[in-house]
Design goal:
- The protein has 3 helices and 2 strands, in the order ββααα.
- It is mostly helical and 146 residues long.
- It has one domain.
- A hairpin with a 4-residue loop joins strand 1 and strand 2.
- The longest helix has 41 residues.
Length: 146
């Protein structure tokens, strides 16, 4: 919803659009945070792999690293693209003064729900990673620890 301020034909965002814009930016920020957290776990798994782990642990490490890669390169990047496109749609809506674009509002709710679901999946993945690392501590004296 866009409202005219006075007779100047300048437009200002309604609070509802400002809220949607802020939520979208917050999720974009969250995606960058997720990527950095997963990069940390990937590095930690690399350190475990470097110390010459036994075959079952190597298989688990490979599986976890593949999950990290999938989430980082595919899932999170897909969400970032959707969020950026959503922001572009808002900008275009404001530029063309298309305040009646109800598709934007429906799209927003769907993307926000998808972001919440992805956040929950990322949290589960991080819990699995934390659990695995806790069960496989690196020993003191491992050369890979800095």
């Amino acid at each position: 919803m866009i409202s005219i301020i006075g007779v100047t034909k300048n437009y200002a965002l309604q609070p509802a659009l400002l809220d949607k814009h802020a939520k979208t930016l917050a999720w974009l920020s969250a995606t960058m945070h997720w990527k950095s957290e997963l990069a940390f776990f990937h590095k930690l798994l690399d350190e475990h792999a470097a110390v010459g782990v036994v075959r079952p642990d190597k298989t688990e490490i490979d599986h976890l690293q593949n999950l990290i890669f999938f989430y980082t390169v595919e899932v999170i990047e897909d969400m970032r693209k959707k969020l950026r496109n959503h922001e572009s749609r808002l900008a275009k809506m404001l530029e063309t003064k298309s305040e009646w674009d109800t598709q934007y509002y429906h799209e927003h709710d769907a993307i926000m729900n998808e972001a919440v679901a992805l956040s929950a999946r990322i949290e589960l993945l991080k819990e699995d990673l934390k659990h695995w690392v806790a069960q496989h501590p690196l020993q003191k004296g491992d050369e890979s620890i800095h």
